[in-house]
Amino acid sequence: MLYVCIIFAIIAPYLICSINPAIIVTKIKSGEDIRKLGSGGAGLTNVLRTQGKTAAVIVLFGDVLKGVVSILLIKLFCLFFMPVESIGDSFPFNEFFTFLCLWIASLSAVLGHCFPLYYKFRGGKAVLVTVATGLIINWLAALSALIVFIIIVALTRYVSLGSIIAAALYPVCVWLIDVYVRYSPNLYIGVIFTLIIAVILIFMHRQNIRRLINKNEKKLGQSERRQQRLYNHLYGIGENDND
């Protein structure tokens, strides 16, 4: 049953998280594809900018819900089907492999959101899904990364910068919590999987990194016109030069 649990941990979260609330909500509200609006991102930030706060709240709830459901489903599946045995010095067989399956599920959920089966493999950046799955598996580490995100966004108003830095620090948070707080014997499983997730999240923000370097990344709450004026000011372009 171990292999069945692993296969289920790969497939189920991927299929669940391939459902993209940002695409669905935007299609229902405006009849458009969110990936063709604003920044082109199929996620919360772009929905907030292009569809408004109500739509953004629905997307927030939807992304968190699908991440939580994915992990809880795998946890229940492993609880019922994983054999209760011992290896080594009475180390619980099912505890180790359940932990492994949960991190596999987290990675699979992220991949489902980023590369959804139902939308030609063009999805969002999976920040909310990462937080949601992480809060179920290692809530202290996920909360620590979330706090870093909030601080960076509060100081800079760049959501993308907060996401990138929080993603990079996520494996560090898992390592610190597992070593100094949880004393987890499964330390490196979490570190390895969160490192892979961090690489995926940073890769999904590659366009944002380019815009941050070029100083034309949009800040939280910044309108298109205000962003253009800032760009013109930075590069000495007159108001009529864009016509």
Give a short overview.
With 243 residues, the chain is an all-alpha fold.
Strand content: under 5%
Detail the poorly predicted runs.
Answer: 86-92, 237-243
Order of helices and strands: HHHHEEHHHHHHH
Ends apart, CA distance between termini = 65 Å
Tags for this model:
243 residues, mainly alpha, two-stranded antiparallel sheet, single chain, 72% helix, globular
What does this structure look like?
The protein is mainly alpha-helical. 72% of the residues lie in helices and 2% in strands. A two-stranded antiparallel sheet has the order 1-2. The longest helix is centred in the first third of the chain and has 29 residues, at 53-81. The radius of gyration is 20 Å and the shape is globular. The termini are far apart.
SSE blueprint and pairings:
Elements: H1 2-17, H2 21-30, H3 44-51, H4 53-81, E1 86-87, E2 91-92, H5 93-114, H6 127-137, H7 139-156, H8 159-180, H9 187-204, H10 206-213, H11 224-235
Antiparallel strand pairs: 1-2
Helix pairs in contact: 1-4, 1-5, 2-4, 3-4, 4-5, 4-6, 5-6, 5-9, 6-7, 7-8, 8-9
